Amino acid sequence: MQASTTGASNAPFVFPVEWLNSNESLRSACQRWQQCEALALDTEFERVRTFWPILALIQICDGEKVYLIDPLKIDDWSPFAAVLANTSVVKVMHAAGEDLEAFAHTCGADITPLFDTQMALAYAGLGASLGLAAVVRERYQVELSKETARTDWLVRPLTQAQVDYAVTDVIYLLDLYADLKAHLHDLEKLDWFWQDGEQAMAKVHHQEPDALLYRRVKQVNLLRGQELAIAQGLASWREQEAKATDTSRNHLIRDEGIITLAQKTPKNWNDFTALNVLHPKVSRLHGKTLLNLIEKARALPSGQWPLPVSRLLDIKGGRGLLDQMASEVRSFAEAHQLPAELVYSKRALESIIIAAVDRLPQAPFVWRGWRQQAFLNPFTHLLTNAGIALPGWWQEQSS
After folding, report:
1. CATH architecture of the domain formed by 3-205
2. Is 42 among the residues known to form the active site?
3. 280-298 and 226-245 helices cross at what angle (nearest 10)?
């Protein structure tokens, strides 16, 4: 293990830094962390050609030290997974996002409870989607360097500039946590806030049925009939292959490639290759498979074609309905002193409308928790008045 002291010369928090680059050193540290009330966490990862994020560095601050875990040297994550899952140890992160996915995939554990300081700042009315650099600049008058943010974190050894950058991502979080937790308690918003932390983790494991993945393809609304059947088959294959081979979706086939194949409907290998929608290596490996999928989709009877994807502009009164729902959100947000965007973005509201209009078999992910409870009655009223028949999942929620 290597220890040093790091931090900007004007930083209010300077901690010794300890590297954890063996299973034994990580296990020993985890025993100490199990006794902590809260831990600050961050990661550096790479995700260019892979489906899953590749952890390159894990930073942890326990209030006494900053620990840098080298994932390239660890093959037993069980002690750390136990810390992540320990409900008595709050995990403090800023804009957790893909970090949660990286931890779940690499360490095999969900983070609970999660205290996301970016989300807490929004709940406290101090700004929505604030980056950590902006928060540190405002609160601590320290300018965080971003020069090494986009460097290759998998290369060893890391430079001192990379180490300093990584350390600054966690040294402020515990102080922010103590302040924001007390503030949200005074505002009586902690219950909703903790729910959102749980939902952020649940989103990592949320999976749409394969049969509905075509709906996420850009410009899929341009397709009809047999074209949709082709897009459905290709999108499902792409997801399964991406997960099985840990390959990014776009590296296999981009959305525009799916749209092109669906519209052009190549019937033989020459037609397929002439469209030039795949990287040559991907075409050699998977081209015949995709051509077979296209042929299989072409053979489907019309009764088995997937339904078109509605656009808000295509829905009668859709724009007005969205505005009415947004008005309900603004009123609720003002009454509870919350940013409207934190409650429901317009994109989220649009997804609710389209899911109802297209009568999808399951509710969109945004329709759950305290938001679902708060808006069930007013949204039911608005959709019903707009002549939209509520799908089964909506009626089940309403009962």
Report:
1. 2-Layer Sandwich (3.30)
2. yes
3. 140
The answer to whether 255 is a known catalytic residue is no
Is-same-fold flag (3-205; 312-398)? no
The domain defined by 312-398 carries CATH number 3.40.50.150 = no
Catalytic residue among 62, 164, 169, 239: 169
Instruction: For strands 90-93 and 66-69, give the pairing.
Output: unpaired
Scan for tokens 């028949």, then name that residue. 389
What pLDDT score does 395 carry?
A: 66
Q: Is 116 a catalytic residue?
A: no
Could you please report the per-residue DSSP string of 232-245?
A: HHHHHHHHHHHHHH
pLDDT digit string, tens, across residues 185-230: 999 999 999 999 999 999 999 999 999 999 999 999 999 999 999 9
From the list 42, 116, 227, 350, the catalytic residue is 42
> Regarding the domain delimited by 210-304, which CATH topology (the fold level of the hierarchy) does it fall under?
DNA polymerase; domain 1 (1.10.150)
Rounded CA gap, 221 and 354, in Å?
Answer: 12
Q: What is the DSSP track for 25-78?
A: HHHHHHHHHTT-SEEEEEEEEE-SS-SS-EEEEEEEE-SS-EEEE-GGG----H
Q: Is 44 a catalytic residue?
A: yes
Residue type, 23: N
Residue 161: per-residue pLDDT: 94
pLDDT digits (tens, 9 = 90+) for 352-382: 999 999 999 999 999 999 999 999 999 999 9
Out of 67, 123, 165, 344, pick the active-site residue. 165
- Using alpha carbons, list the distances in angstroms from residue 353 to 12, 237, 333: 48, 28, 20
Our answer to whether residue 76 is catalytic in this structure is: no
Q: Where are the domains of the chain?
A: 3-205, 210-304, 312-398
CA distance 59 to 72: 14
Q: Of residues 62, 70, 99, 255, which has the active-site annotation? A: 99
